[in-house]
Write a structure and sequence with these properties.
Elements: E1 3-9, H1 22-31, E2 36-39, E3 42-43, H2 56-63, H3 65-71, E4 79-86, E5 95-98, H4 102-107, H5 116-125, E6 129-132, E7 150-155, H6 160-172, E8 177-181, E9 193-197, H7 204-213, E10 217-220
Parallel strand pairs: 1-2, 2-4, 3-4, 6-7, 7-8
Antiparallel strand pairs: 1-9, 4-5, 5-6, 9-10
Helix pairs in contact: 1-3
């Protein structure tokens, strides 16, 4: 049996660019035949109100709204996990982090003022994997591979040329993990990407083990 998982999706509850409520997002992915979703709302300067920049507890309560609502719709046959799409101050680069927990985010410092070297180390020390998202999107620069565990080689919002370039770069740097995600913000983005596994993913440990093993196939429904 095969299982499909979306590992790059956003909710309007948290991400300002998101256009789907977390409950609606989960329903659409269930209807599309997926077995689960990783909510990777934007942890970026655009997400937070200025008053939240200096109040981590308030900022995280805001940030976790989408995931927490989506989690309410988790069922025995549909898994909802927390991920993060991180962008620091004064950059347009985005990084996907898997294996994240709420407790971890509360334990770590506010992430926006950090840089990739420190953030990557902090998350990887805690067992997470740290990937660059859509590395050939306009204005993005490729990160130093030593700070990465992998690369998103297919992004549902990217064109074929950008996705092909991402895959080529991932192969050039011998990226250990190569992923696909819809980067879903609205209904038209549902089901464009993700991974197909031979076993169900129920926990972060399952997700991390499968990503590290490479025992999955990529969903690539190019627009």
């Amino acid at each position: 049996m095969e299982y499909k998982y979306e590992i790059h999706a956003h909710t309007k509850n948290t991400s300002r660019c998101g256009q789907m409520d977390a409950g609606e997002l989960v329903k659409k992915y269930k209807d599309a035949g997926y077995s689960g979703i990783v909510i990777t709302d934007h942890y970026s300067p655009m997400t937070f109100n200025p008053s939240e920049f200096f109040n981590k507890k308030k900022a995280l309560a805001h940030y976790l709204q989408g995931y927490r609502k989506a989690k309410q719709y988790e069922t025995e046959d549909f898994t909802v996990l927390l991920g993060t799409e991180l962008r620091f101050y004064a950059t347009v680069n985005d990084y996907l982090i898997y294996g994240v927990t709420e407790e971890m985010l509360y334990e770590l410092p506010f992430l926006l003022p950090l840089h990739i070297k420190k953030a990557s180390r902090l998350f990887r020390e805690r067992g997470c994997v740290f990937l660059q998202a859509h590395p050939f999107r306009k204005f993005i620069t490729r990160a130093n591979p030593k700070h990465l565990d992998g690369v998103e080689v297919f992004n549902g919002k990217a064109d074929k040329e950008a996705n092909d370039s991402s895959l080529k770069w991932a192969e050039e740097i011998n990226a250990k993990i190569k992923t696909s995600g819809s980067d879903c913000h609205r209904e038209t983005g549902v089901g464009l990407g993700g991974i197909i596994t031979e076993e169900p993913i129920k926990t972060n440990d399952d997700l991390l083990r499968i990503l590290k093993s490479g025992n999955y196939k990529l969903i690539k429904n190019q627009k």
